[in-house]
Amino acid sequence: MALFDARPIFLVVGILLVTLGIAMVLPALYDAAVSNPDWRVFLASAVVTTFFGVTFALMNWGSAGDMTLKQAFVLVPAVWLSLVIFGALPFAFSELNLSYTDAFFESMSGLTTTGSTIIVGLDTVAPGLLLWRSLLQWLGGIGIIVMAVSILPILQVGGMQLFKVEAFDTPDKVLPSAAGLAGTITTVYVIFTVVTAFALWAAGMSFFDGINHAMTTIATGGYSTRDASVGHFDSALIHYIIIAGMIAGSLPFVLYIQAFRGKAMPFLQDTQVRVFLSLLGIATLAMIVYQMARGLEGTFEAQIRYAAFNVVSVMTGTGYATQDYGAWGPFAIALFFTLMFIGGCSGSTSCGLKIFRVQVIAATCVSHLRRMIYPHGIFIPHYNRRAIPESVSASVMSFFFLYIACFGGLALLLTFSGLEPLTALSSAATSIANVGPGLGPEVGPSANFSGIPDTAKWLMALGMLIGRLELFTVLILFSRIFWRS
Question: Which of 73, 167, 383, 401 is a good FRET partner for 132, with 20 to 30 A between their CA atoms?
């Protein structure tokens, strides 16, 4: 049996660690400008991270020409875990005096764009740390898009082969082609971020708050600079801008690239986009009717805005909040709990099951029911007006089963760690679905995760990683068959 060649993996990890180290310089400069002593922490963390990154890269330079499928499977979790470990350094050594468990949790939540936080008193936290949280989510958002359009289709994870790009027909094209596509995606990503930041600043946010919220809005991450989240900003215009930004971040970025190149029809015709927007509209309408029936406080416009904002925030996995929707009643709790799992479109920064998988599952089930009624008929499920191959249907069904199994297993483990049932269920859901706040008084929108046991934090961090990396890319590493193949 040939030895596993990890050199291409260390090379990519090294390059990305250098990028992370350079990113740490930005909050260091900002803290230095406002005379906050944490600039030394960021500078030291940047030096350590860059040192390891340069070492890994130089030791393996020139060895990434032909990455195999097995190496690609190992690459994805290796990259994310490495970035999380080093991304936690500024949290661990800052004036917040966080334990490494809390620092790791915050870093994992940031890079996976989950948005769950353990930091209390965000309104008084040093600006460099607030900027670092936002940068982690912004960088994680780019990484998620590139992974979704380049790596996962090759690995055929959860039906992602539906979105295979012609440039990635063979494994040895993965790295150079992904690098080219990443550049184009980053350009679009930066444009959206700048436009959102300018709009928020023009609507009344400070420049610092606008930049931070723009980064975490487009990344659908949900980290805010305020304890009250977006509810701190009592401005309808700000709320509507963030709603638009969250939706923009949840649509396929490949379609944006095509639209910018003059091919807008695929964007308008994509069934995934239409179903996503339709579900958002239906859920928002249901919540508005429910609010009116219960006689909740606020004007009619405010009820529409709060319903739309929180529905979009939960379904896209952003995790912002304008109110404590956990106190809206049982129907709201049930609806938001369901929306957590659905998520946005494939190839976006959003999370959850993804809309296309819901469509494939529904089409496959309908086709199966028709075959039961008409045994001699031929019924083929379709997605985007194309027949769904059996391999894709099987892959999506397997993903769905494993998704539910992981959620149930994580909820059970969190219960054993000491959380009460509702907190354990919502914490498991928000981890696997990468949403952010959970439900209930302990981890709901008006609280955070600082009070849960350390064991639960490590379990949730694992859930965030598994959910963000589409389950199979992490769980397959525990299979002996994978390593023997």
Answer: 73
Examine the pLDDT at 165 and tell me if it is beyond 70: no
Helix (H) or strand (E) holding 390: helix 390-416
**Would residue 262 count as lying in a domain?**
no
Residues of the domain holding 129: 7-185
Residue 318 assigned to a binding site: yes
Amino acid at 121: G
pLDDT in tens, 81-106: 999 999 999 999 988 888 999 999 99
Residue 302 lies in a domain: no
pLDDT in tens, 179-188: 667 778 888 9
Is 221 known as a binding-site position? yes
- Cα–Cα distances (Å) from 266 to 92, 145, 278, 327, 352, in that order, read 46, 18, 17, 41, 23
| Residue that is last in its domain, among 185, 209, 231 | 185
Cα separation, 298 vs 286, whole angstroms? 17
- Residue that terminates a domain, selected from 128, 151, 185: 185
Residue 448 lies in a domain: yes
349 is in an annotated binding site: no
What are the distances in angstroms from CA 219 to CA 16, 115, 157, 158? 18, 10, 22, 22
- Residue 74: in which H helix or E strand, if any? helix 69-87
Q: Is 434 annotated as a binding residue?
A: yes
Residue 294 neighbours by CB distance under 10 Å: 11
Residue 313 within any structural domain of the chain: no
Overall domain count for the chain? 2
Q: Report the predicted TM-score, pTM, of the whole model to 2 decimal places.
A: 0.91
Residue 44: count of CB within 10 angstroms of its CB = 15
Radius of gyration of the chain (CA): 22
N-term to C-term CA, the chain:
9
Say if residues 352 and 323 touch (Cβ distance below 8 Å).
no
Q: Average pLDDT of 419-443?
A: 85
Length of the chain: 485
Residue 324: HSE in the Cβ half-sphere, 13 Å Cα cutoff: 14
